[in-house]
């Protein structure tokens, strides 16, 4: 719950800032007799009141989503579009409050995953793309897999051979990307109807934002050796995401 609390805390800061602006606007309006200024104050008050109501609604829906894992269609759409709208502002607030950005990025990915998993989705295996970062491969391996994951020699020094086993078991498309440009290239070429993406918190959150309208389940990688080198992934979580899309489980 730590990530959820961090996200809600930042949203609360936004509410307080908005409330302060709202009170200041009302004070100016009450102490000023100019019609134009009063009209502007009235408009500002209305807009910021809507912002406060919207953020409070987001907080309620986030709590409900994580406790019950069940939102109706309208609630899901409100939460999805509202979180997408405020997400850049939330990241900006973390710079001021010194809250770990990765916690915010992780909760953004979790919210996205839960919203996707609340839908009834069932695809053909060929309609699903598994998108992997190149840092999953053992850094000293001479057999590069960015063009073809089957170049892997299955030596067991990284998780790639296990992912190939999933690929063969479920007959899904798997691609390895060295960055956002190559990831977009794979998406354009394979034209998937859904994506299971493995990456760090930063790349997952930005990638999910980039492909709005396309269902994406994000699986955060483990980084026992630091970022971007010899990373790991939970094969169980990866398989669960695959099964959700092609079996509806």
Number of helices: 8
* Global outline: elongated
What is the CATH top level name of the largest domain? Alpha Beta
Topology pattern, helix = H, strand = E: HHHHEHEHEHEH
What CATH architecture of the largest domain do you see? 3-Layer(aba) Sandwich
Number of domains: 2
* Euclidean distance between termini CA atoms: 24 Å
Strand-helix topology:
Layout: H1 2-31, H2 35-68, H3 73-97, H4 101-117, E1 128-133, H5 160-170, E2 173-177, H6 180-190, E3 194-199, H7 201-210, E4 216-220, H8 235-247
Parallel strand pairs: 1-2, 1-3, 3-4
Helix pairs in contact: 1-2, 1-3, 1-4, 2-3, 3-4, 4-7, 5-8
Features:
249 residues, alpha/beta, Rossmann fold, 2 domains, four-stranded parallel sheet, 4 strands, 61% helix
Short description:
The chain has 249 residues and is α/β, with parallel strands linked by helices. The chain is built from eight helices and four strands. The chain has a four-stranded parallel beta sheet with strand order 2-1-3-4, with helices on both faces.
Give a structural overview.
It is built from 8 helices and 4 strands, in the order H-H-H-H-E-H-E-H-E-H-E-H. Helix 7 (201-210) links the parallel strand 3 (194-199) and strand 4 (216-220). The protein has 249 residues and is of the alpha/beta class. It has helices at 2-31, 35-68, 73-97, 101-117, 160-170, 180-190, 201-210, 235-247, and strands at 128-133, 173-177, 194-199, 216-220. The chain is elongated and about 80 Å long.
């Amino acid at each position: 719950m730590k990530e959820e609390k961090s996200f809600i805390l930042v949203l609360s800061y936004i509410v307080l800032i908005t409330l302060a602006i709202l009170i200041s606007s009302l004070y100016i309006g009450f102490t000023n007799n100019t019609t134009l200024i009063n009209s502007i104050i009235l408009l500002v008050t209305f807009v910021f009141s809507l912002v406060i109501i919207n953020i409070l609604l987001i907080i309620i829906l986030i709590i409900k989503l994580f406790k019950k894992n069940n939102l109706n269609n309208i609630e899901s759409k409100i939460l999805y579009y509202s979180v997408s709208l405020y997400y850049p502002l939330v990241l900006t607030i973390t710079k001021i409050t010194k809250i770990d950005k990765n916690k915010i990025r992780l909760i953004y990915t979790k919210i996205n995953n839960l919203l996707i998993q609340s839908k009834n989705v069932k695809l053909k295996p060929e309609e699903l793309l598994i998108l992997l970062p190149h840092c999953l491969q053992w850094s000293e391996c001479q057999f590069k897999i960015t063009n073809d994951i089957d170049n892997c020699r299955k030596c067991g020094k990284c998780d790639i051979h296990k992912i190939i086993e999933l690929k063969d078991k479920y007959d899904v498309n798997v691609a390895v990307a060295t960055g956002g440009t190559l990831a977009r290239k794979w998406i354009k070429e394979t034209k998937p109807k859904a994506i299971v993406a493995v990456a760090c918190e930063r790349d997952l959150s930005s990638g999910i934002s980039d492909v709005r309208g396309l269902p994406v389940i994000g699986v955060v990688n483990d980084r026992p050796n630091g970022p971007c080198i010899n990373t790991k992934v939970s094969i169980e979580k990866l398989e669960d995401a695959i099964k959700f899309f092609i079996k509806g489980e």
